[in-house]
Amino acid sequence: METVHIARVDSPIGTLRLATAATGLVFIELPHANGSGFAGWLRRHAPGARVVEGFAPNRKAAKQILEFLEGKRRTFELELDPRGTDFQRRVWKALCDIPYGETISYAELAQRVGNPSAVRAVGAANGANPLSLVVPCHRVVNTGGKLGGYGGGLELKAKLLAMERAKPRQGDLL
Asked: Which one is catalytic: 33, 128, 137, 141?
């Protein structure tokens, strides 16, 4: 039986819920998330898992996410276990290639995953990202630069993009 350790972390954007399994960080729940949240993720990707409150397994992720939200970190050095379909994982991998402080369109993301006609499917995969912030789905916008959907809400998406654009992109840690 798999064990999933969860921890609540107070952050500059509100309380986050982090979930870590033996394989790495598996889920980040943003404040005001508009999806089915951790309970839905658990039903789909870790049915029967034993859920344990525990900060220790989430300590490294919490530290790095807080550094990111404070503008002190540009990249993450974490073991990740993003659970989803092969297509979703290809999209999430491509998200990690978007440089800090930059954005791309959903159409460009579809091209990057080798399926330029799958813009809607790419958008759905982006929306299903279980590791928001670490896998930077907030860096994808509509063609023309208009903000599209975001699991934590458009206000948070705009805040994250503004934070990234305001900081110089020199080095991973300040």
From this structure: 137
Same fold, 3-69 and 86-166: no
The yes-or-no answer on residue 96 being catalytic is no
pLDDT tens string 132-149:
999 999 999 998 888 888
Give the CATH class of 86-166: mainly alpha
Q: Where are the domains of the chain?
A: 3-69, 86-166
Q: What CATH code is assigned to 3-69? A: 3.30.160
Edge-to-edge strands of the sheet including 3-11?
A: 24-29, 14-21, 3-11, 50-53
For residue 172, what pLDDT band results from cuts at 50, 70 and 90? very low
What is the rounded CA–CA span in Å between residue 163 and residue 73?
A: 11
Structure tokens belonging to residue 91: 């999209």
Q: Is the overall model pTM greater than 0.70, yes or no?
A: yes
